[in-house]
Amino acid sequence: MNAVRIAWRITRLNFRAQLEYRSEFLMMIAIGAVWQVSVIVFATVLLTRFTGMGGWDSSEVLLIPATRMLAHGIFVLFLGRMHGIGKIIQEGMIDTYLVRPMPVYRQVQLSVFPTNAIGDLTVAVGLMIGALSRSDLDWTAGRITYLVLCVLGGMLLEAALFTAVACASLRFPAADYWGRWLEELLGTFGSYPLNVLPRAVSGLLTFGLPLAFVAYFPAAVLTGHGDDTGVPYWLAAASPLLGLVAFVGARWLWRWSLGHYTGVNG
Amino acid sequence: MSGSIEVRGLSRTFHTTVRRPGFTGALRSLVQPERVAKDAVSDITFDVAPGELLALLGPNGAGKSTTIKMLTGILTPTSGEARVAGVVPYLERERNARNIGAVFGQRTQLWWDLPVRESFSILRDIYEIPKPEHDVRLREFDDILQLSTFWDTRVRHLSLGQRVRCDLAAALLHDPPVVFLDEPTIGMDVVVKEQVREFLRHQVEERGRTVLLTTHDMTEVERLAERVVLVNHGRLVLDGTLDEIKKRFGSTWQVRATLADPHAEVEALPGIELLRREGPQVVFGPDDGPDAPTVHQALKRVIERYEVTDIALDEADLEDVMRAAYIQAEAPTAHEGG
What we know:
The complex is a heterodimer.
Chain A: H1 2-19, H2 22-34, H3 37-49, E1 52-53, E2 56-57, H4 58-79, H5 85-90, H6 93-98, H7 104-109, H8 116-134, H9 141-171, H10 176-189, H11 199-208, H12 216-223, H13 233-237, H14 239-259
Antiparallel strand pairs in A: 1-2
Helix pairs in contact in A: 2-8, 3-4, 4-8, 4-9, 4-12, 9-10, 9-14
Chain B: E1 5-17, H1 22-31, E2 35-48, E3 53-57, H2 64-71, E4 79-84, H3 93-99, E5 100-104, H4 116-126, H5 131-145, H6 160-172, E6 178-182, H7 190-205, E7 210-214, H8 218-224, E8 227-232, E9 235-241, H9 242-248, E10 253-259, E11 272-278, E12 281-286, H10 295-305, E13 308-315, H11 318-337
Parallel strand pairs in B: 3-7, 3-8, 5-6, 6-7
Antiparallel strand pairs in B: 1-2, 1-4, 8-9, 10-12, 10-13, 11-12
């Protein structure tokens, strides 16, 4: 309980500190929203020019970017500091975190308030409201619960991927560039039904880089396309669980990497 | 809780890639990298008793910071063992963190965008310090370090001297028995340096904290350290008191006398040897024996033995002594490495 209290207190203070730089604060919110412009354009084009995509109708497709964006926004808010950790490592802050009686992972997350997450989440919530209002599905309690679990699973999966990159950055700071590539990839391919892509590419985005589990498979299961994803139905349905497993694995890797940390000057 | 530090055969090896010279060499290194092991710290053993202030000295790259990083739990040693206040730092990092305070002069442990006082209160929560205790300690630190004049300022707007004083207070707020200071006064002006030294003296003498200090400032060593450990090329070269170091690494004084009789016969005196003679001018220094006199005793002996028209004293300062120690320590290691 004390850990939650401390985390809340630090977040509150960090938020207040950001508020004091008014222009910077507003700019960061705008950046968070503008960064997602490709998703907004995609959604607009999808709804105004096409009736569907890859056998999905447009309202069903919209659920994919909405789920991904919401998962991404929550990731940025709670666990997003793993992305771009190279700067923290280069400045030697990991050394400072290691001499405090608090998990280093938590300290990294609490190092700054992610103002841009406000922009990300605003776009994401708007998109989700749009997707749900256009959806013909019967949103039963079970479906809503599954959607919530999928968003959380997507967040954990994204956190797991960036944590893995952060682990590499602990040893090779240049690995941080892979984080930018990863973000680009998630933004580019995360909003489509992956069955529109060549089989090799969709296979790679399923088993190589498990992007399909963030939003595509969950949306497929929710909209009744769960049998047409190229993987067994149960695997697609287990996406939230996979996110959790990936995150637990990434945290283990993080702990192992910290044990082998050699410092910035070493 | 005992604030001792025990270090036994501690070693840390880093593996790096050798850079070959030239463009072709760079390409070869890319295809066929040559990995070498570099011993940053090699088989170091020493103890620091509770309530003792020990200066860990050595030239740049000697292994001081790596040693401190292993003792604070930042790095895991390749071999050997260390205990800080009874805890193995790299095995129980968080438990060790509660027993130690650490200041790295070149970086802050405070929250960059927050006023200092907010950082202090976050640390109070993290270390679970009762508020009355926290307030008393903060008042005590403020008395010596005069923090209240700037503790409502954001850390990013503090001068270096103000920032390090705040870092010192932050490192000691939870009342740790052991404190590690890695070049805490680097870049400070003389007034602030003296303030920090007074604070450290107070912490050791009045509060009984164990302090391990690295610094290149010999005045600091002379004013604060009871004992010195000298490392070079990752190896422990000397562990002793300042007096022992002065005795071992070069004359600590010279007496220059001008003799009334330029042709007088001059010979060594008890504990004193003749270093050189140029006409009527003679220079004496302490011999290598165990009974070398102090500079004042030497002066008395020279005046009693010879008729002099002028006499002068040169006392080597600690910086000269350490320079000699570093140079002499370099020789055997260079030989081993070559």
